Automatic annotation (TrEMBL):
SMART domains: Trans_reg_C (SM00862). This is GAF domain-containing protein. Keywords: DNA-binding, Transcription, Transcription regulation. It comes from the Bacteria. Coiled coil: none annotated. The keyword Transcription applies. Residues 257-323 form the OmpR/PhoB-type domain. The lineage of its organism: Bacteria, Bacillati, Actinomycetota, Actinomycetes, Kitasatosporales.
Amino acid sequence: MSPAASFSGEAELTDPWVALEPGADPAEHARVLRRAHETFTAVGTVPRPVRSVVAESWRRSARAGVGPDGTADVDLVDGELGAYRAEHPLARVMPVVRELLGTFASDGEHLLAVCDANGRLLWVEGHPTTRRRAQRMNFVPGARWAETAMGTNAPGTAIALNRPVQVFAAEHFIRQVQPWTCAAAPVHDPRTGRVLGAIDITGGNGLAHPHSLGFVQAVARAAESHLALLAPPVQSATGAPELSVLGRDEALLLAHGRKIRLSRRHSEILVLLARHPEGLTGDELLCALYEDESVTPVTLRAELARLRRVLGPGLLESRPYRLTTPVECDVAVVERRLESGAVTSAAAAYPGPLLPTSQAPAVVRLRQRLADGLRTALITGGDPDLLAAWAHAPWGEDDIGVWRALAAARPTAAVRARLTALESELSAPRGWEGCGP
């Protein structure tokens, strides 16, 4: 089979995360992808040769209002960029990243890039000629390369999917990025599992080899291991167990040197008990956890018995149900910072909604109250960086109030286009009488 035929749609890649099969013709496949990209931007359909991971990313990019002729916005410059980088957790592992990947980037005329969890580039290093070429498309420190801002690209898509990914040539959503190939892998906090950012290698078509994806993933794992050595699991400064529930469906409890991952129901219970150190009766917990009034106290008691076994002896008591020691919850951290007016610090401590898939009535109310408080503070403050971070996050991509505030603070063409699209959706007829905006 010829290289061209191998991408005719009749054969699938054996590994969907790798851009090219060994032996494939990069130039021919790049031509196939360019035609597919033009088809998508013209009529919105994705031809079969495009990998499913790329097709899904193109659709997300279009929904986010990204245009194929867009350019990255530079959010941070000069002293502001330097201060932000110095405080970022990944600054501590940059020596390791440079040692493992820096020489490879320089010798191969590639770039090493590291971004934060919002897809904002913090470091871009490597071959000088390649760096100058990359500057033309704002692939520079301080620029936002989140998928919701720049469409399909390795660092942005790796963060969006929370897994390593390779992006080849015209798989990039924005045309000016299509001469490039890149591979990126997310880096996680070894204590909480949260995404801290991503490590990326960017260059020419040679990076489409499967080894480049494996290499950058290995560097990301090495960075995580180094972080774990620098900051071994410890309790908070107050000595209290720590409960992480923001931006995750299952809570993580750090207590007495143990890392305990909880089920969704146990996560909901612990959130509520952490907020009520005085304790809750069985009836109060039933009302807080279940919409269905037919759920019996026996069901709740069984759930609490299982939770007690998971937590170990001495942490959960009954009559009323309560925790025997204060638990520091990340929800309370955000609330305290908002109350003190530290909006930037509050936003930094908010990786996402509280237990996003939970339907427990009390958790839903708390989730909404926290999100509303933070977004109101962001809109009132008008800081364009904070507004952009919210607007480009999954929970803020359709938040028209935030997009309006962002358009007032930073009226770029991409922001105005997204706001226009949202306002059009808001004013469109709903198709049935009485449906408000």
